[in-house]
Design a protein that fits this description.
The radius of gyration is 13 Å and the shape is globular. Strands 2, 4, 5, 6, 9, 10 and 11 form a 7-stranded mixed β-sheet that branches. The protein is mainly β and 125 residues long.
């Protein structure tokens, strides 16, 4: 069993930055890939970024490439999402997730077994 708790969301102006954290509990988290998804009102949940269980490979949605960076700290059992150059269209609830596909995480939410409760990110224009 893995429990995920996100933090770091908030209100920021266009062009600003935020860093989201996802703290995991559970001995097996180190073998899971970590991912971030987001869901805006009235829209489906969409993939943002993923990192393999060792942190060696990262994957991004085209909409955030070059602006967002995902990373993980194995010692702290934490996955991070650094978000720079934020835009109003980045406004959403951001969810952390853990995938059993530790070395090849994909963009489908169905691949992810565990989810956090979400943290709100609002970017004002």
């Amino acid at each position: 069993q893995v429990q995920l708790v996100e933090s770091g969301g908030g209100l920021v102006q266009t062009g600003g930055s935020l860093r989201l954290s996802c703290a995991a509990s559970g001995r097996t988290f180190s073998s899971y890939a970590g991912g971030w998804f987001r869901q805006a009102p009235g829209k489906e949940r969409e993939f943002v970024a993923a990192v393999t269980w060792r942190g060696g490979s990262t994957y991004y949605a085209d909409s955030v490439k070059g602006r967002f960076t995902i990373s993980r700290d194995g010692a702290k059992n934490t996955v991070y999402l650094q978000m720079n150059s934020l835009k109003p269209e980045d406004t959403a609830v951001y969810y952390c997730a853990a995938s059993v596909s530790g070395s090849s995480p994909g963009p489908s939410p169905y691949e992810y077994r565990y989810w956090g409760q979400g943290t709100q990110v609002t970017v004002s224009s």
